[in-house]
């Protein structure tokens, strides 16, 4: 093995084992500690690139230095897509519940029922997820938008229609449901 | 570990044992294995008797220097002395079998330790990860997380609604105490009561209309006076009362309307 | 490029991308998702090994999986740069060897074989380095903990599984091992 090749193998190992991209400066220093001229670094890197020509990985220069990366043409085949469905935040879920039960209702209605102001982010989330949609405007000064639930809301919650939503008095008056609701509330309330 | 670690015998004090050191021996078994190896034969064929004698001589030598030799060295010495005596007995003796068994046991332990030491060296000679060989330093995460989906259910929706209703039920809003001032309506009825009273005649001061408890706080008094004035003006408009003021900032006077016919 | 080569490039990328060994199971699954027979994994791995023949890194079987590692020949040049783990003392190494051979075993077992008591330092070192782990308790009076080696032990010493440890008779008969053992003893014992 000639000197260039044996040096290029050391540099290859160094870049491979490094936690971060190895800066050109560090590589130059390394080459010097191995007793070689620092100008040899160019040919050394070229030789490594050549060695990895038909490989799944390649030596690339990134912002901070040199690094091995998976070739872009094979990366898609290796990428595993993990689905992690989101949960709605508490305020979004409460807002959605109010709209479901009190629709059509305005932003002011929602704020009145929740007793806190409704942030635009919450409303935007619900709109983006297609759970709510505008249902005209209320004929009062300012003509605020009236919100209601969408068809996607029904399918998301597995409801055939809005009538399938348990009625409020059912939730609150039925002693069993009330007890259960109470239990659920206790579990979640203190978090 | 290495209880006998610091026992040295210098050449001058003990001519028969030129240089003796227990340093590096981790216990009697360690030393025994070394002595057995020194016989330079397969461990399966070592002479136990020779081994015993070497050990006893070694420990005896060490004891002349350091009397407080650790107990396990002496326990082993005692046991080996017993073994030696049994091994030296004539072959036809009954105890023969017992000694052979004990010797076999010792040999087994030495073989075991030898194997362990072999494995220990084998492991030691292997390239260790992070010391001699290195894995990929910065991995690439090939997993992509898709968070576009939404996980919702009815229980969550109902729970959220109930939780909110209950929370709101419990919630107390801070409402600043609203100051109660003498209102115009009250002033009107007070004025009417005054006019209906027959003994009242002639000009009366408007201020006499004010309720006694309103006269203390300046703000309440001003509000009450304003109410009284508005009430007076309202009633003057319908002719139920007459008002006059003799000058700027002078007292406002009122009286029941005088009937022209009289 | 034939099917085997293109598949081997994907597998190469998959193993190369990971910091940890990729389990044989995961590789087999991956091969199947690529529409190939799982039995092709052997030839695929062989091809990758061949492809890295003249490289500073090699494909090795460790802890029931596969990983790229730098070759031990280039260690001297690299160790100066990368931070080293501590070396195990002789007692720690022997204790580890006993646990490797006799697992699961108790502290008393270890002391019986070495003929000396096991120091807390040695036990702590092995646990801290993640080389050994508790494997339940022995159902005898006192219910002592049973110790065994971890997956990290295999990975650390580059072993595919416990079967890759030499057999005891191999160690006792192998003249090289004996000679090496002898050398160490001569340094420490009587001359």
How many H/I helical runs of chain A?
A: 10
Main beta sheet strand tally, sense and closure of chain A? 2 strands, antiparallel
Share of β-strand residues of chain A: 5-15%
SSE pattern of chain A, N- to C-terminal: HHHEEHEHHHEEHHH
Strand content of chain B: 5-15%
Q: Which of globular, elongated, flat, extended, rod-shaped describes the shape of chain B?
A: rod-shaped
Averaged pLDDT of chain B: 77
Radius of gyration of chain B: 58 Å
Q: In terms of structural class, how would the helical and strand content of chain A be classed?
A: alpha+beta
The greatest interface here is:
B-C, 52 and 58 residues
Shape of chain A: rod-shaped
Strand order of the largest sheet of chain B: 4-6-5
List unreliable stretches of 5+ residues of chain B.
Answer: 1-19
Question: Would you write up a description of this structure?
Answer:
The complex is a heterotrimer, with two copies of chain A (191 residues) and one copy of chain B (262 residues). Chain A contains ten helices and five strands. The longest helix of chain A has 15 residues, at 3-17. The radius of gyration of chain A is 31 Å and the shape is rod-shaped. Chain A has helices at residues 3-17, 24-33, 41-51, 75-78, 90-102, 107-114, 120-128, 151-156, 168-173, 175-189; strands at 57-62, 65-70, 80-83, 132-137, 145-149. With 191 residues, chain A is of the alpha+beta class. With 262 residues, chain B is mainly alpha-helical. In chain B, strands 4-6-5 form a three-stranded antiparallel β-sheet, with helices on one face. A two-stranded antiparallel ribbon of chain B has the order 1-2. Chain B starts with 7 loop residues before the first strand and ends in a 7-residue tail after the last strand. Classes of the chains: A alpha+beta (191), B mainly alpha (262). Chains in contact: A-B, A-C, B-C. The interface between B and C is large, with 52 and 58 residues. Strand 3 of chain A pairs parallel with strand 3 (143-146) of chain B.
């Amino acid at each position: 093995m000639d000197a260039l090749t044996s040096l290029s193998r050391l540099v290859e190992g160094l870049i491979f084992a490094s936690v971060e991209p190895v800066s050109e400066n560090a590589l130059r220093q390394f080459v010097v500690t191995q007793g070689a001229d620092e100008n040899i670094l160019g040919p050394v890197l070229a030789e490594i690139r050549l060695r990895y020509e038909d490989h799944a990985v390649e030596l690339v220069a990134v912002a901070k230095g040199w690094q091995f990366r998976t070739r872009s043409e094979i990366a898609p085949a290796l990428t595993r897509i993990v689905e992690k469905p989101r949960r709605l935040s508490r305020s979004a879920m409460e807002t959605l519940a109010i709209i479901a039960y009190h629709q059509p209702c305005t932003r002011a209605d929602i704020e009145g029922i929740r007793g806190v102001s409704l942030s635009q982010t919450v409303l935007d989330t619900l709109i983006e997820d297609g759970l709510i949609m505008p249902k005209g405007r209320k004929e009062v000064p300012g003509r605020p938008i009236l919100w209601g639930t969408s068809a996607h809301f029904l399918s998301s919650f597995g409801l055939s229609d809005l009538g399938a939503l348990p009625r409020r008095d059912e939730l609150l008056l039925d002693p069993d449901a009330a007890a259960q609701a109470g239990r659920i509330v206790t579990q979640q309330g203190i978090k | 570990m290495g209880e006998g670690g610091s026992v040295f015998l210098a050449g001058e004090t003990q001519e028969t044992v030129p240089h003796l050191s227990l340093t590096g021996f981790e216990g009697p078994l360690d030393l025994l294995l070394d002595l057995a190896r020194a016989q330079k034969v397969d461990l399966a064929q070592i002479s136990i008797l020779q081994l015993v004698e070497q050990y006893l001589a070694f420990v005896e030598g060490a004891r002349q220097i350091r009397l407080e030799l650790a107990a396990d060295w002496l326990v082993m010495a005692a046991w080996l002395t017993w073994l030696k005596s049994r091994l030296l007995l004539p072959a036809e003796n009954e105890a023969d079998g017992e000694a052979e068994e004990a010797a076999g046991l010792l040999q087994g332990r030495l073989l075991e330790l030898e194997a362990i030491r072999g494995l220990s060296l084998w492991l030691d000679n292997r390239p260790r990860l992070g010391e001699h060989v290195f894995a990929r330093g910065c991995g690439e995460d090939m997993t992509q997380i898709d968070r576009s989906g939404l996980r919702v259910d009815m229980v969550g929706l109902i729970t959220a609604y109930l939780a909110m209703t209950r929370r709101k039920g419990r919630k107390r809003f801070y409402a600043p105490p609203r100051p109660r001032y003498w209102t115009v309506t009250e002033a009107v009825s007070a004025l009417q009561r005054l006019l209906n009273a027959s003994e009242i005649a002639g000009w009366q001061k408007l201020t006499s209309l004010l309720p006694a408890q309103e006269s203390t706080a300046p703000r309440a008094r001003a509000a009450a006076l304003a109410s009284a004035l508005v009430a007076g003006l309202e009633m003057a408009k319908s002719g139920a009362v007459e008002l006059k003021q003799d000058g700027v900032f002078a007292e406002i006077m009122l009286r029941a309307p005088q009937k022209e016919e009289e």
